[in-house]
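Q: Could you fold this chain for me?
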Amino acid sequence: RNMSSAGPEGRKKMRECDGLIDSLVYYIQGAIADHEPNDKATENCVCILHNLSYQLEIELPETYAQRIYMQRRNISSHDKTPGCFGTRSRKVKEKQQDTPLPEEKSNPRGVESLWHSTLIRIYLSLIAKSTRNYTQEASLGALQNLTAGTGPMPFAVARTVVQKANGLPSIRTMLHVSHPAVKKTAVSLLRNLSRNPSLQSDIAREVLPDLVSILPESVPGSDIACETTASICYTLYNLTQSSSHNARLLLSAGGLPKIITISMNDSNMFSKASRAASVLLHSLWSHTELHSAYKK
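A: Sure. Below is the predicted structure, expressed as structure tokens.
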């Protein structure tokens, strides 16, 4: 667990270690089957997998990139950048988001397991069944890592979480836990998921009222709560930017007074949350058909 957080070279060596990832997944599957999701070894295994999934899309070997994404649409050579997936133009990213992953292997091995739907379902199962905060946080964090990029893999994982594995109810429960790091990671995962336009209506229906309910009445006093508040605002921004229906849902859930109060705090310490709230307010105002409702 310590070695898996030692940086990119350490992660690379551990991902390449024959049988290591398979053994970790095997152990967790056994713990879940035996109804023992709270033991310390399971926590360690999940924390290792969480660390090994960090920056996975960027750090995957080129051979994996070619094999996994061979079905993606042809991209002209001048749009390509060195490395695995790199930073590409908006148009290219939009194309990639529409490109499905090839059919999954039924028996993934090694690094292929890290983004496979089997492990995604294991994380969601641990989120639902474990009461151990570190296990919950690591499971949420692994999904956050896997959905963090802009290539086909993060969007495929997001679709699996939301639509194929019905993961939103379990994630929604984590919004209401008392442990601040677990709550922060759950919100960060939702922020990643909400970037996918095809999932926004599902996410808004399932969790938008919950996100509004956990928004503080004013800017919170701690750094972690401040970051969580900023992430909530950016998630709501993603959900409402192109949907007046979702903006109305935010309004009916009582979100506007909270967002206004948070946006008006100009202290440097809390600028991240107030800036995010201001961006959200600006976006909400773009729905001109809601102006009269806002004014009321």
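A (continued): Residues 71-100 have pLDDT under 50 and may be disordered.
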